Every structure is written in C-alpha cells, then in structure tokens.
Automatic annotation (TrEMBL):
It holds the Pfam family CM_2. It comes from Sphingomonas endophytica. Keywords: Isomerase, Lyase, Pyruvate. It comes from the Bacteria. This is chorismate mutase. GO terms for molecular function: isochorismate pyruvate lyase activity.
Length: 100
C-alpha cells in the first residue's frame, strides 16, 4: 500500500487517489458513528413525530456551513451536502424508530 501523504505533499495522481481513498474510509467510519446517534435518538424520542425537527435541521446545516466557511471551504456546497446528510439521517432514524 502506498504511503498516505497530506494533500500539499502529493506529487502524483496516485498519491492523491491513495489519500482520497483513505480519507473516504475515515469519512464512512465517521458516518457510522453519526448514525449510531440516530439509533440512540430513535430509542430516546417518545413519538415518531418527534423524529423530524425542522428547527434542529436548520441549525445543523447552518453550523456546518459556518464551519466550512471558517475553514475556507464553499459554504453553499457544504450546506447542500449537509441537507442530504440530514435528510438521510432522518430517514434512517424513522426506520429505526419503526423497527423498535
């Protein structure tokens, strides 16, 4: 396996792809952890109707946008990704709630 270099040290596309693939594995592991919290929420919330919370959704997306912009990333793009992530999380949590 190739050494995983920080992006600023990559000199070949192989270096870049190795780094991206490794980072993608880390991101999926982090998503697993995030979805564990959705399992907990489904267990804790008293009703199915409590799963969708539009105010909290807006807060989570705004926080992601703000953090992205603080780090010099495109806030609109990150907010769009978080919209998808939060909707997928809500769907997952609803399924977990229904299964309990």
């Amino acid at each position: 396996m190739s050494e995983i270099l920080p992006g600023q040290h990559c000199t070949t596309m192989s270096d870049v792809r190795t780094g991206v693939d490794a980072l993608d594995r880390e991101l999926v592991a982090l998503l697993r952890r995030r979805f564990d919290y959705m399992d907990a929420a489904a267990r804790i919330k008293p009703t199915r109707g409590a799963v969708r919370d539009e105010a909290r959704k807006a807060q989570v997306i705004a926080q992601a946008r703000d953090e992205a912009e603080r780090l010099g990333l495109p806030g609109d793009a990150v907010a769009a990704m978080w919209e998808t992530l939060v909707e997928a999380s809500i769907a997952y949590e609803l399924a977990a709630f229904d299964a309990r």
